[in-house]
Amino acid sequence: MESEAGIELTAISEGMDLNPLQKEIIQKNINLYAEASRDFNPIHINEEFARSTSLGGTIAHGMLVLAYVSQMLTANFGQSWLKSGKLNVRFKTPARPGDTVAISGKIRKIEKDGAQTSIKCDVLCQNRAGETIISGDVILRK
Length: 142
What we know:
Helix content: 25-40%
Distance between the termini: 16 Å
Strand order of the largest sheet: 3-5-6-7-4
Number of strands: 7
Structural class: alpha+beta
Number of helices: 5
Largest sheet: 5 strands, antiparallel
Shape: elongated
Radius of gyration: 17 Å
C-alpha cells in the first residue's frame, strides 16, 4: 500500500524490493540540466567535442542520474526520504543519450529504536546492457 508518504511502514520488510523506476537519458534533458547547474563541460553538451574524446560521445551529468535515484527513493519513502535520507554512492560508468536506465533498490535492514525506525537500503542504477552506472546504499528514518 502506498500513500503520499511512500510505502507504509507496516508494509516493509527486510529483503523487500523497492518499486523501481526507469528513465530515458535524452540529450535535451542533459542540456536542461547543464543550464540549471551551470555545468557546461563540453563532454555533456558538445557532441562533436565529445566524439573526439575516449568517451566517444556526450554523457549525462552524474548528478542528473543521481536525481533519478532520488526520484525513485522519494516515490518509495515520500517525505521520510526528503527529510532524513542519506545516500552514499559510487559512479561506475557514464549514462549516455539513448540509454534507458533502470533504478532499483532493496531494503537491507530495518532497525526500530523507540518511535523511530531506521531503514537501510541498497540502490542500483543500470543501463540496458546491464552495466552498473551507480551503486550505493541509503539510510533514512521513518
